[in-house]
Amino acid sequence: MTRFYFRRACLAVTALCGLASAAQAGGIEAKQSEGVAAPFDIVETKVTVVGDDAVFSMRVRGDAGSERPSASGKFEGSEVYAYVWPTSLNSADVGFDKDQGIVALAATFHPDFDDAAKGATNRDRWHAHWVILNKDDACKGGLKVTDIPKDAKPKVPETWPGVPLLIDSPEYGTALAGDTVDVHVPLSMVGALKSASFDGVTAGLRVNADLHSPLLCVENVFKVASGDLSLPGKVAE
């Protein structure tokens, strides 16, 4: 079901899905797409075990992170840019209730609001999140970060930032240098990672201008590494 939703969103949002190529040696290589802005044009993505970490890496045609949303001065309607690794993990693997949706790691930048854990600030830097995605036809991209209904009390990780979304804000090492994005995830925190499959996506999200469900939508999918969101990547050791 998860992969069906991803494929549907892919087909609905961008014709560039069909331009990507298959995985090699656990990672996923993709053909360059001149119609995609170079900082979001994925050419390779992989997840590799390095010591005690799983390193999520994405390589693009241009300078990773060089293109960012412009600050609007308000939360409503503000934009988020993201480098995303959708995975086969269960939401329980990252601290939420079981079977809540599609688990994705994302490196994001959003200059109009903070969503770090325990009141810390992060609007001025690229930083990592776990997000739980679900289908929602109200979103242009067909997917949303899952809303928490009013008065609901779901299980959330210790580093949940206190917003009404299934999102986590762990302080994972996140680096953008040259053409590469790297996020270091401690294996001790997500033990199921070694057996997980993954994909790579670059995307733009937007906060709902009316601040109601869906609060945070996937609005534009810039590029899909596999071409069909089939999660073909395998963690390399």
- SS class: mainly beta
**Low confidence ranges:** 1-24
Q: What is the average of the pLDDT values?
A: 91
Overall geometry: globular
Largest sheet: 6 strands, antiparallel
**What is the rounded Rg?**
16 Å
Q: Work out the count of structural domains.
A: 1
Q: Approximately how much beta-strand content do the residues carry?
A: 35-45%
Task: Please outline the helices and strands.
Blueprint: H1 2-13, E1 20-24, E2 27-30, E3 42-50, E4 53-60, E5 79-86, E6 102-109, E7 127-135, E8 143-145, E9 167-168, E10 173-177, E11 180-186, E12 197-198, E13 201-207, E14 216-224, E15 233-234
Antiparallel strand pairs: 1-2, 2-3, 3-4, 4-11, 5-6, 5-13, 6-7, 7-8, 7-9, 8-14, 10-11, 12-15, 13-14
Can you give a write-up of this model?
With 237 residues, the chain is mainly beta. It has one domain. 5% of the residues lie in helices and 37% in strands. The protein is built from one helix and 15 strands, in the order H-E-E-E-E-E-E-E-E-E-E-E-E-E-E-E. The protein has one helix spanning 2-13; strands at 20-24, 27-30, 42-50, 53-60, 79-86, 102-109, 127-135, 143-145, 167-168, 173-177, 180-186, 197-198, 201-207, 216-224, 233-234. A six-stranded antiparallel β-sheet has the order 1-2-3-4-11-10, with no helix packed on it. It has a six-stranded antiparallel beta barrel with strand order 5-6-7-8-14-13. It is globular and about 45 Å long.
